[in-house]
Amino acid sequence: MRICVTGSNGQVGTEVVELALAAGHEVVALGSTDVADPALMDEAIGVAAPDAVIHCAAYTDVDGCESDPERARRVNTEGVRVVAEAAERSGPGARVVAVSTDYVFDGSKAGPYVESDPTHPLGVYGRTKLGGEQALDLGRHAVARTSWVCGRVGRNVARTVLRLADEGTAMKFVDDQRGHPTIARDLAGALIRLAEDRAVGVWHVTNRGAVSWFEFAREVVRAGGGDPEIVTPITTAELDPPRPARRPANSVLDSERYAPGQLLPDFRESLPELVRALRAGA
């Protein structure tokens, strides 16, 4: 099939392009294109006439969204609508798989969130990503909510932790925010499968293994061969300076749609490969 990938130079888009090509798909990579520009999207997607668009482009700086809500709205909400409309105009069979976030939830639920749970974002990032979900015809297109993504491209927590650990620098991470770390390459494979299956509606797509940021940082250090004791826990209230954007205390995602055998593996299974890739690219 022919797949357009927006945000193809980002940490998820890079992996989607590589895996899609390896699977024999034809790929049209749309890197830094302005996804909220209807003329540009009509031209890029219209010429490609894809079977699917995997929409990875987003403004993901959670704190930056608080200070620039208009940019967040334009990219995360308007961009999804524009891409979907361009896909629909490109041909009757084109489908969109748009990446969304765990931050559409407020974290007040005692257990993991599933696809049918009511949304209630705490900040601009979550609200604008939810707006993107609502801009889609979910009878035709799909949303893949994910969380705590780390890959070999771009900035992420795993890269930062590994660098600091290799420098022997002590670290403090919050132990009162819990979620599922997701390895970008695993996520990319799942996005391609959703496109191949012509899936519709909302899907929760994360690696397994619920941890706090503190516990995740320790796992990264351990995977890199370091001493996890270099990482110590703090509370969100102890962050200095405090973060501008509120984060949900619980953003663990589970799925009521996937069969157990279809779930992504525990992040610890994929983390060593990511650590090797980050060190090789350092």
Strand content: 15-25%
Biggest pleated-sheet summary = 6 strands, parallel
Derived from helix and strand composition plus strand pairing, the structural class reads alpha/beta
**Second CATH tier, the architecture of the domain at 2-154 and 182-208 and 250-265:** 3-Layer(aba) Sandwich
Written overview of the protein:
It is a single chain. With 282 residues, the protein is of the alpha/beta class. It has a domain at 2-154 and 182-208 and 250-265: NAD(P)-binding Rossmann-like Domain (Rossmann fold), CATH 3.40.50. Helices cover 40% and strands 16% of the residues. It has helices at 11-22, 38-48, 62-67, 69-90, 124-134, 157-167, 184-196, 213-223, 267-281; strands at residues 2-6, 26-30, 52-55, 95-101, 142-146, 149-150, 171-174, 178-179, 182-183, 201-204, 211-212, 231-234. The strands form 4 sheets. The protein has a 6-stranded parallel beta sheet, with helices on both faces. Strands 6-9 form a two-stranded parallel sheet. It has a two-stranded parallel ribbon with strand order 7-12. Helix 1 packs across helix 7 and helix 4 runs parallel beside helix 5 (124-134). The longest helix has 22 residues, at 69-90. The chain is globular. The relative contact order is 0.16. The mean pLDDT is 95.
Looking at this protein, list some descriptive labels.
Rossmann fold; globular; 6-stranded parallel beta sheet; single chain; alpha/beta; about 280 residues
